[in-house]
Design brief:
The protein is an alpha/beta fold. The chain has eleven helices and 25 strands. The radius of gyration is 34 Å and the shape is elongated.
C-alpha cells in the first residue's frame, strides 16, 4: 500500500461516525471498553495509526501517558490540536516502525491499523520488542465487505510471540459503532510474557527393545555422569517436537534411522538432578530391527553400547534413567523424579527412592487393586513369587511383617502368611479362599457399595489383617461371599 493509499484509507475511517467518536454514546461505549482492556495503574501507552487522536484522548483522559503516531501529517496536525493540554506526544511516522527510539511501553494500541500494514508479521514482531515484560498489545480490527483482517488470521500471527491472547467480539455492541453491524469486528489483547517465565529443557530418551533386553550407552567425555549407563537420549531443539527430536538423537547417537510410526510413548517424567534445574523427559519405545543394528556413532561421548535385561538392570546407571526404566517396566506412564541436592547422580541401590508415580486421569472403579494370596511360608513364597513376578514385569512394592507385594501399574500381587501358619501366636481358623481387591473411585462410591452388598448375599467383615485405619489414608470395605472368598474395596 502506498502512502497515498494509506492516507486515503485512514481518512475514510475518520469520516465514519464510529471512528471519530463524535457521538457521546459511542464515545462512552469505547471509554468503558478501554477501562477493561488497559491496566488500572497509570501506564505508558503507544497509540499507532492514531488518526485524529480520538482514542488517544480517551486513554489520556483515563490517566495514562500517551505517545501517538500517524504517518499522515494532516492527521497528526488534527491530533495535536485535539490532544493539546493532555501531555500527549504526537509524532509523524510509520506505525510499523514507530519513531520512538529505545522507549518501552506498557501498552501498544492499534485500531484499524494492522490490516493496512505491508508486512503485519514483521510489524508485530517489532511491536513486541517495544513492550515491557508483562505488557499488552491491544489490537482492534475487523473485516468489512471482505476487506480487513480476520481474528483467526491475526491470532495466528500473534501466537508466534505469545500464547496469551484474549479475543473479544465487538460486532454485537451497536453502541460502539453508532449502528447495528453484521460483519466481523473484534479486539485482541495479547500479553508479552516476562523474560523470566519458568521454562524447562525437554529431554527425549529411547527405550530400544530386543525382546526382554534394552540398549544402554555408557557416557564418556561429556562432563555429566561419565562412566554411567544411560538410554540413548538428548534434548529437543527450538521449534522441534519431541518425536522428531528422538528420531534425530537416535540417528546421531546409535546410527539408527527410525520412522515416526515405529515409536510409542512409554513414559513422561519430570526430573531434577542434584543441584540442577527441573527438566521434562519423554521416553519412547521402539523395537530393534536386526537389519539396522545400532552402533556407537559418537565415540567421543560414549565408550560402550550393550544390551541388558530389563528385569535385571545394572546398578551403574544414571539414577533418573534407572527410575524411568523401572517405571516403564511396571507400566507406569507418568513420573516425578526429584533429587535432593545431596543425592548422587548415580543410581543408589539402597538409597532413598525419589520416584513418585502419578496416576492417569481415568476412573479407577472396577480396576484390580491387588490380589492377596495366603501362603504357609513367607520366605518360600517370596523367593517363588518374587522371581516369577519379576520376570513378568512387576517390581518390589511393599514389605510388612507377614507379607510382601509386587506392583505393575496400578495393580499389585501380595503374598501373606496365613494366620493359621504362624508359630508362637494365637491361631485362627484358615479361610477358604484368597482375597481380591478392587479400586473404587471415591469414598461415596465405597459407602454405597458397602451398603448395598448385604442385599446381594455378601457379608460385611470387620477390618482384618493389614487394615487401613483412620481418615488420613485409604478407606476400605471387606466383603465375603458364601464360599468364604474375600473382596476388598479400596477408595483413595
Amino acid at each position: 500500500m502506498t502512502t497515498t493509499d494509506w492516507d486515503a484509507a485512514a481518512e475514510s475511517f475518520d469520516d465514519e461516525p464510529d471512528h471519530g467518536l463524535h457521538d457521546p454514546v459511542v464515545r462512552g461505549a469505547w471509554a468503558r471498553r478501554m477501562e477493561t482492556w488497559l491496566p488500572t495503574a497509570r501506564s505508558s501507552v503507544l497509540d499507532l495509526g492514531c488518526g485524529t487522536g480520538s482514542l488517544s484522548l480517551l486513554v489520556a483522559g483515563q490517566g495514562h501517558r500517551v505517545t501517538a503516531v500517524d504517518r499522515s501529517p494532516r492527521m497528526v496536525e488534527r491530533a495535536r490540536a485535539k490532544l493539546a493540554g493532555t501531555g500527549t506526544e504526537v509524532l509523524v511516522g510509520d506505525a510499523g516502525r514507530p519513531p520512538v527510539g529505545t522507549q518501552r511501553f506498557d501498552v501498544i494500541l492499534a485500531r484499524h491499523t494492522v490490516w493496512l500494514l505491508p508486512d503485519p508479521a514483521a510489524s508485530l514482531r517489532h511491536w513486541f520488542s517495544l513492550l515491557r515484560p508483562g505488557g499488552r498489545l491491544l489490537l482492534i480490527e475487523g473485516v468489512w465487505n471482505g476487506t480487513g483482517l480476520s481474528a483467526a488470521r491475526l491470532t495466528a500471527l500473534l501466537h508466534a510471540h505469545t500464547e496469551r491472547v484474549h479475543h473479544e467480539s465487538l460486532s454485537g455492541d451497536s453502541r460502539l459503532w453508532g449502528k447495528d453491524v453484521d460483519d466481523e469486528r473484534y479486539a485482541l489483547v495479547a500479553r508479552a510474557e516476562p523474560p523470566d517465565r519458568h521454562s524447562e529443557v525437554v529431554d527425549v530418551h529411547l527405550i530400544l527393545r530386543r525382546g526382554p533386553d534394552v540398549l544402554l550407552a555408557r557416557r564418556a567425555g561429556t562432563g555429566y555422569a561419565d562412566g554411567l549407563l544411560h538410554a540413548p537420549s538428548g534434548h529437543a531443539e527450538d521449534g522441534e517436537d519431541v518425536r522428531a527430536a528422538v528420531i534425530r538423537e537416535t540417528a546421531e547417537e546409535i546410527g539408527v534411522e527410525l520412522d515416526p510410526d515405529e515409536l510409542r510413548v512409554a513414559l513422561v517424567m519430570q526430573h531434577r538432578g542434584p543441584g540442577g534445574s527441573p527438566r521434562m523427559g519423554w521416553f519412547f519405545e521402539a523395537d530393534h530391527d536386526p537389519a539396522r543394528p545400532p552402533r556407537n556413532a559418537e565415540p567421543d561421548k560414549c565408550s560402550e553400547l550393550a544390551w541388558f535385561p530389563l528385569d535385571a538392570l545394572p546398578d551403574d546407571m544414571v539414577a533418573y534413567c534407572r527410575a524411568g526404566l523401572d517405571a516403564y517396566r511396571a507400566e507406569q506412564r507418568f513420573l516425578i523424579h526429584w533429587h535432593e541436592d545431596a543425592d548422587t547422580v548415580a543410581y543408589a541401590p539402597r538409597g532413598t527412592r525419589r520416584a513418585v508415580p502419578l496416576p492417569a486421569a481415568s476412573s479407577p472403579t472396577g480396576l484390580l487393586h491387588h490380589v492377596e494370596l495366603r501362603v504357609p511360608g513367607l520366605a518360600e513364597a517370596e523367593e517363588e513369587w518374587g522371581w516369577l513376578l519379576g520376570r513378568l514385569g512387576h517390581v518390589p512394592y511393599q514389605r510388612w511383617s507377614q507379607g510382601r507385594s509386587w506392583r505393575r501399574g496400578d495393580s499389585s500381587v501380595a503374598v501373606a502368611a496365613d494366620a493359621s501358619g504362624r508359630s508362637g501366636e494365637a491361631r485362627e481358623a484358615p479361610r477358604a479362599g484368597s482375597r481380591l481387591a478392587f479400586h473404587v473411585r471415591d469414598r461415596a462410591t465405597l459407602d454405597a457399595l458397602a451398603a448395598g452388598a448385604p442385599r446381594h448375599g455378601w457379608t460385611l467383615l470387620p477390618p482384618h489383617g493389614r487394615a487401613y485405619a483412620g481418615d488420613s489414608g485409604p478407606r476400605t470395605a471387606l466383603l465375603a461371599d458364601t464360599a468364604g472368598h474375600e473382596v476388598e474395596l479400596i477408595a483413595p
